[in-house]
Every structure is written in C-alpha cells, then in structure tokens.
C-alpha cells in the first residue's frame, strides 16, 4: 500500500494506463508506468524507472525513426540529452548560438546538413555512453531519410512500451 506524499492518505495505484510524459518536452506516451492518484487531495504522479535509459531510447527513436526534419522540441531534447548548452551545441556544429536558438524556437529550419550531423552526433554519443553501438544500421537511417523533408507531415506522438527501455538496452 502506498500513501500520498502530499496528504498522507492511502493512494490509488493505476496500472495499464498510458502515461503522457509531457515533462520531457515531447509528445511521448509510455506504457507500463505505474501511476498514483489521491482521491483525498487530488494529487497525482507517476513512477518512471530508468529515466536515463528512457531518455536515451527517446533520443535514439528521434534519430532513427523521425523522417521529417528535426522539429524545434526534438532539437532541444537531443541537445539537453547530449548535456550541451545552446552555445556549446552551436560550437559543436559550427554555427552561431543565434542559429541554434532560432532552430529551437521554430524561427528557422535546421536544414538537411545540420539535421543529419546532429543525428549522427547523438547516435555516436548514445553508443559511447552505452559502451556499444545502440543503433543498428546507422547508414540505413540516413539512406532512408526521404528527399523534400520540409513537406513531410508526421504525427508528433512517440509511443514506447516498457520493454523498449526496461529490458536489455536495445532500442532498435
Ligand atoms: Zn493526497
């Protein structure tokens, strides 16, 4: 039995309800997360295990599966998971800090070359952190990116099942 950290009353455990992980800045839906709801005071929260791995899986998902040019919130997510400040990402990619902030506030498209460079950097970083290659077929990721990406419409939602980040680390 769990108790509400806010009011101390018994709290209801909710399993099997998709959790919208809006805190990460993206439209991510997680399955297999235990959520808690307090009837007494209205407090609700979720228990998310393995946050670091989860973020790595989301980042890898963005790099491998999102076909459109990286969106502002995706660029920001990758940058933060790379633990870079905007200024540092700018230096890393050879652009000005103003350019990075325009990408992140949606005033400017990231463009083909920097989109691909940021994805490559992230996948290398994630592999380095995991001490093995975590993205299978990196070259294919790039070969499969369509031309004319500015015209691509895709849903923003990313849906993850628990085995994608709670089991052996293999997001592919
Ligand atoms: Zn409560």
A few lines on this structure:
The protein is 41% helix and 11% strand. By secondary structure, the protein is an alpha+beta fold.
Describe the fold and architecture.
The chain has 172 residues and is of the alpha+beta class. The chain has a domain at 51-154: Orthogonal Bundle (434 Repressor (Amino-terminal Domain)). It has helices spanning 51-65, 72-81, 86-93, 97-104, 112-130, 138-143, 163-166; strands at 12-14, 19-20, 28-30, 34-37, 44-47, 158-160. It has a three-stranded antiparallel β-sheet, with no helix packed on it. Strands 2-3-6 form a three-stranded mixed β-sheet. A hairpin with a 7-residue loop joins strand 2 (19-20) and strand 3. The structure holds zinc ion. Zinc ion binds next to loops.
Q: Could you estimate the helical fraction of the residues in percent?
A: 40-55%
If helices are DSSP runs of H or I spanning 4 or more residues, what is the number of helices? Answer: 7
User: What proportion of the residues form beta strands (DSSP E)?
Assistant: 5-15%
CATH topology description of one domain: 434 Repressor (Amino-terminal Domain)
Subunit organisation of the chains: single chain
Count of DSSP E strands? 6
**Spans of at least 5 consecutive residues with low confidence:** none
The CATH architecture of one domain would be Orthogonal Bundle
The CATH C-level class name of one domain:
Mainly Alpha
Give the CA-based shape.
Answer: elongated
- What ligands are attached or bound here? zinc ion
Class based on secondary structure composition and strand pairing: alpha+beta
């Amino acid at each position: 039995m769990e108790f509400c950290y806010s009011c101390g009353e018994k709290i209801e455990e909710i399993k099997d309800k998709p959790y919208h992980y809006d805190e990460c800045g993206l439209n991510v839906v997680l399955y297999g997360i235990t959520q808690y709801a307090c009837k007494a005071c209205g407090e609700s929260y979720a228990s998310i295990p393995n946050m670091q791995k989860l973020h790595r899986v989301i980042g890898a998902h963005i790099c491998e599966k999102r076909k459109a040019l990286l969106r502002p919130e995706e660029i920001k997510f990758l940058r933060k998971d790379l633990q870079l400040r905007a200024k540092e990402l700018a230096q890393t990619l050879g652009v000005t800090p103003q350019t990075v902030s325009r990408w992140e506030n949606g005033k400017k498209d990231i463009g083909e070359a920097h989109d691909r460079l940021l994805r490559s950097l992230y996948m290398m970083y994630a592999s380095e952190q995991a001490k093995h290659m975590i993205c299978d077929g990196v070259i294919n990721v790039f070969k499969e990116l369509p031309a004319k990406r500015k015209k691509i419409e895709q849903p923003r939602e990313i849906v993850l099942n628990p085995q994608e980040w709670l089991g052996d680390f293999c997001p592919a």
